[in-house]
């Protein structure tokens, strides 16, 4: 074990990418960008790298199957039964956190209610149940030694409520450990930004912002001890450098590669490349309050014809993206398969002229990682042919995320993956903005005011008939596709590469669904 820690320290301190020809035994080294991380607290963190950590350091009452995410499996709940507006969960009686503390109903109550009380970005997921800081304690109660009852006051079926409770934000936190580090009334959010207090396969051993995230095995996890003692995730912002690290044997897995890197690695000895189906859509979003033009529906319409869908998906990304223009990705019940828009810059110009929009331009705030930066440059060229000037402003992911959440942007390229596997997860992001301070959705980030769509989204959520519910989501998709500040254009595939000796790694169909528990090398 001492040799293992010495090897890890060398990696942590290593400034040269050529220092190792082989990663240490017992340590899985992952090269990816960690610049998006704002917090590793499941009650506040909502960034891709943060969510990936939650799947490995925490558990939920129920959770999606890694290989069949539409199927929910037991997490910390041994069993459950539902009735109108409530679900009763029986906890696994011998489940413990990494600290050794028993998992109690009090921990479930603490974990779920603190999300609402903190009211950070992911809180809107649980707030859909009608929970507020004033009433949430009425709906999450201990009803037995190992039992907790969760209820809600909204017209939501138990099936949807279960899906909501499988989201990473519903991760169960060790209350005793967390509150021992609380400061004032922060509910331990400061400490949990860089530490973990869960029951997952791993614990956070060390986190150095913008440098490294080190996970250590939790042998007492209810899911069983993981097969690899350490997961070392190195922050490597440049995709080409991630490729080089993998080629040289200095990394076991290279995440978030671009099409060029995958093409280059395809025939590299000792390396396997993967292009995996991914339930993620990419979209161009306008801040409707940033300027008069950006709030004009005619400008949104012109942008739909200035977006070079096929050029980006086929020519630029080499078919690692596919054209998809609706907010439900292919694979979801009710997803639309038709794509009525295509690249027609002349038509875009005509729309702008008829609307009296002269000298259109906007600043596009974009993540400096592929494929965002690549898509942004392509859009800059395609919009220019439509007479629209696009000024690129590149930044690291966390900066982009913060500015968008603060409405300090004109336009951005975003991507959205499901928080749970029910159509409402995306409808509640793109077609719902109740403006109540509890639900900071994608529509909220766009400053888009949509009382009618809000009503339709809630009606679809409450509809008990599956066929009727599917039709309602299809109508919502058409409305958002045709008249919104979102130009949804692409659905992606996950691009990664790993050394041939790495076995058991699972990348699920949602962005954050990364599983290290069964990895060996």
Summed up:
By secondary structure, the protein is of the alpha+beta class. 33% of the residues lie in helices and 22% in strands. Strand 2 and strand 3 form a beta hairpin.
Task: Describe this structure as you would to a colleague.
With about 525 residues, the protein is an alpha+beta fold. It has 19 helices and 19 strands. The strands form four sheets. Strands 1, 8, 9, 10, 11, 12, 13, 14, 15, 16 and 17 form an eleven-stranded mixed sheet that branches. Strands 4-5-7-6 form a four-stranded antiparallel sheet. Strand 18 (about 505) and strand 19 (about 515) form a beta hairpin. Helix 18 (about 450-460) packs antiparallel against helix 19. Residues about 15-20 have low confidence and may be disordered.
Structural class: alpha+beta
Number of strands: 19
Radius of gyration in whole Å, from Cα?
Answer: 23 Å
Indicate the percent of residues in helices: 25-40%
Biggest β-sheet description: 11 strands, mixed
Low-pLDDT segments? 15-20
- Basic shape: globular
Q: How large is the share of residues in beta strands?
A: 15-25%
How would you state the average pLDDT, rounded? 93
Terminal-residue CA separation:
17 Å
Number of contiguous helices: 19
Signal peptide: 1-21
Domain Solute-binding protein family: 72-435
Protein name: ABC transporter substrate-binding protein
InterPro entries: Peptide/Ni-bd, SBP_5, SBP_5_dom
